[in-house]
Design goal:
158 residues; Endonuclease, Chain A; 2 domains; 47% helix
Length: 158
């Protein structure tokens, strides 16, 4: 990565000089391999919060559609914690599409959204109540606490 002193940036250094050098194919592969599908930071935030509220749960039940992040079997409730980029949220991070291989990413994220809707529908058909929490919402602890509390405290209306 090219590093410039603040002085050089202020003097009007060209934007190409300030941009990070392109990663090699191996470096990009290493970065993408490091992306986790479970035990992510947003998921851990929600799990710790639910635990502090006194709820007990199961993690990543593979026998349910979509392998839900957090399952409350006794309550018949499920929480998915979606990453904004990977699941195409409407926030700034979710709307961002990488410039390289753009067609692939548009198709990939659209497929993820379709799969998510299908899984939520199947779970609802099976009698589960589902809450989807977004990565961007995990930074607002009070609002997150209220959302989780309201979802878990309400009785099943089906």
């Amino acid at each position: 990565m090219v590093q410039l002193h603040r002085r050089e940036v202020r003097k009007g250094a060209k934007s190409q000089d300030r941009m990070a050098a392109k990663e090699t194919r191996e470096a990009r592969s290493r970065i993408m391999r490091a992306v986790k599908s479970r035990d992510t930071t947003p998921e851990l935030i929600v799990r710790r919060l639910a635990y502090r509220m006194g709820y007990r749960f199961r993690v990543c039940r593979k026998d349910l559609p979509g392998c839900p992040d957090i399952v409350f079997p006794r309550l018949r409730k499920i929480v998915f914690v979606h990453g904004c980029f990977w699941h195409g949220h409407s926030c700034a991070r979710g709307r961002r599409i990488p410039k390289g291989n753009r067609d692939y990413w548009v198709k990939k994220i659209a497929g993820n959204r379709t799969r998510d809707r299908r899984n939520v529908k199947r779970l609802a058909t099976d009698g589960w109540n589902v809450l989807v929490l977004w990565e961007c919402a995990t930074g607002k602890e009070i609002a997150l606490t209220n959302t989780l509390k309201n979802f878990l405290a309400t009785e099943d209306r089906t």
